[in-house]
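Record format v2
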Amino acid sequence: MADTGTALPNFIETDAERGSFRVNRKAYSDQAVFDAELRRVFDRCWLYLGHVSELAKPNSYVLRTIAGRPLIFSRGADDEVRAFLNICPHRGAQIARERSGSAKSFTCIYHGWSWNNKGEMIHLQGEDGFCDKFNACGEVNLLQVPRLESYRGLVFINFDENAMSLSDYLADAKDFIDIIFEQSEADMQVVGGTQEYSIRCNWKGLAENSIDIYHGPGTHPSYIDYLITATPGVIPDLANDQGRILKLGNGHGVAEYYGPWGRPIADWKSSLGEAIRPEIEAKEREIEARLGTERAERVTKRSFNLLIFPNLALLNIHAVAIRSFQPVRPNYMDAFMWMLAPADDSEAMKAARLNNFLEFLGPGGFATPDDIEALETCQIGYDVSARSEMWNEVSKGIPREDNENWMDEGHMRAFWTQWNRLMTGAEA
Amino acid sequence: MDLRELSKADVEAFMLHEAELLDSWRLPEWRELLVEDCRYLVPSCDAGGGTARDTLFYIADDGFRLTERVKRMMKKTCHAEYPRSRVLHTISNVQLHETSADTARASSYFVTYRHQRGNLDTYIGRHDYLFVPQGGQLKIKEKQSTLHLEALRPHGRITLIV
């Protein structure tokens, strides 16, 4: 695709003797880099749009802005899921205007053109003023995003017609997504209520933070204090290796570990309360019987933080959180969090799950806001890099790259290597 | 104490005192304004009529968690609020709704300012209170602060008592 090559800075520097992998801070702050990134990363990668459960019935839709493009995430009358640009083919106005709803057709408020929810024009206002062939090849139908595919109901879109399949793109991340969905034989669905917020930081700060375990003791001691009080007898062990990090291909990465918190599915700890204990232990037994001991251990006891390149995190921790973060400006992102839960959750289980989510996650939780604080102060530093050459060290774990521990950073180096490949065409 | 004798002026005085405590970050004293077994709720901006038992909120604390929240907010390791942001709580549109001998419902509008690192963020919305008498004093049994915002943007956080 036409992309007039702006001279971009050198993004990655390695020093084998020092054991250093450094990332140019202009990656987080330079406008030319941001503009190139929208084309070279966000127009070529599979981007998370939403989950099919958010479109419960035919004719339902949700509005969502993905990498700066306003979209209509739609389930048509024919039950097909589509993504349209929410931009009128006539003069560009916003067509669908309510956050979500049910509509058999969409009518633009500007000149009254209308389409059904398959995107086909059904009414051309003042039709006699247009040639018969005006829409002969669908030129003024709703513009659909070229590619849309889903995995386990997680719907992704791609603006590159020639992109590899979503399944190929997800590579080894699929197994981790499977682990989440194996929590229940029932379908998983997004629970009502969205945490919509923003961070005064480049979107890549949150990509890193979402899979960073190294920051736990430094950033979250007040959360750990809470957990010790809420879970008598449990002393979180953060000093010893509790898991692993993995590079999953195509820039995806994961940190998988035994966390110090309770898990509604299915690792009861006293912080969850006695009332829900029988139900959680029953789920534990059900999963063990269904999946066998080894797989069940990963599904019930292991937490993980998964990053699907570029901007989706699946946090399988206190509950299952879907987190997406959208580039808005070099130093500002919009963030979204939803909770995913089995459709057959009892009322008590759903309440326990939501309660567990909030102790840590979200703008009002005891942990996420301190991550946000760290990222916002990082961005102040990144903004300085417009006039001074400055670098981030992403070097932890280099001396033991074949045997990295849960607080090492090899998976972040894989993120940056992929990003660099897309931005510059360079091989690692 | 019979809450049927409560006046709008009484609840307004309570709310203004509450605002003063919150402005000077006297949070343990603020916590004393609520009963031990209380509820403190901040719904997500699209929660609609959902409850914290079926809908994702920002905050849905029981008494234990609210006590812990206050403890966290007083620590230097509560990085989001240390060093302290400068906050100002303004209250208006106070209304006293139905009362019985031992319950009273009231509401107010709030405009709360938070200034940190040169960013002045404004939280706006409505507080809904359930008051009960305890030891001859008016206390909060349940407080819900509903943000009249589309999203926590550009705020990014709700780490104060709004």
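DSSP finds three helices and six strands in chain B.
Residues 100 and 113 of chain B are 34 Å apart (CA to CA).
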